Amino acid sequence: MKSIKRSLYVIIPILLLFLLQSQLYRLHYFFREDSEISRVIYKTDSLNERLITRVDTNGQKLVALTFDDGPDPLYTPAILEILKNYQLQATFFVVGENAQAYPELLIRMIEAGHEVENHTYTHPDLSRASHLKIEAEIERNDQVIYKITGTKAQFFRPPKKLFRRETIAIAEAKGYKTVLWSICVENSRAATPLKMAKRVIKSAKPGMIILAHDGRLNRNKTVAALPLIIKEYQKLGYRFVTLEELLNHKAE
Ligand SMILES: [Zn+2]
After folding, report:
1. pTM to 2 decimals?
2. Residue 120 CA to ligand 1 centre (angstroms)
3. Where's the NodB homology domain (predicted)?
4. 48-248 sits in which CATH class?
């Protein structure tokens, strides 16, 4: 009896620690949307090289502006208008069910020279989903995008940066490269459009992948911050390109 009790003193703290560790990345993510936590989790294996967070352009001042979670009937048209005004092409990681609801917005993206990429069908947590569920989420959105635009998506971004090793392997098996980002426009430490813009401008580097959102939550601040960011980057000599073009400039 005594020995059982004693072993419980050992087992319970270990279990608690294990539980805490498995939840830690979620907590971190909750507080800092562009947290680097998944890179910390996967630092010990070779997966890092298969996750694109920035592209080495050999100093060429090219950056990619990417949008997640749309299309949205309010924010996506506003953003498309901004991109048109500043004459630049961006990359939209769309959610399949939103794309199905607003197919005309995907057509507008393609017609304006933007790229449409895969952010799953329903935006679930892919770190906990089954193999079949992950496959279905990627595949279903792949088909939605193809049906609307006639083009095959080539980049995949896991929702909320939640994924595991297998998620990347499944995406690769479907012909996708997994793309994360270097900096996120929306950030808990930047409460106003001006602060959001300043933070992103301060971090300017060649080959950066900038993440912004055009759906899911209120994105008024993002819409207000974008022209400030674009103007300043262009003043600094940066050119905004799609992800495909950015990767075409990758140094050998
Ligand atoms: Zn998302």
Report:
1. 0.84
2. 9
3. 61-241
4. alpha beta
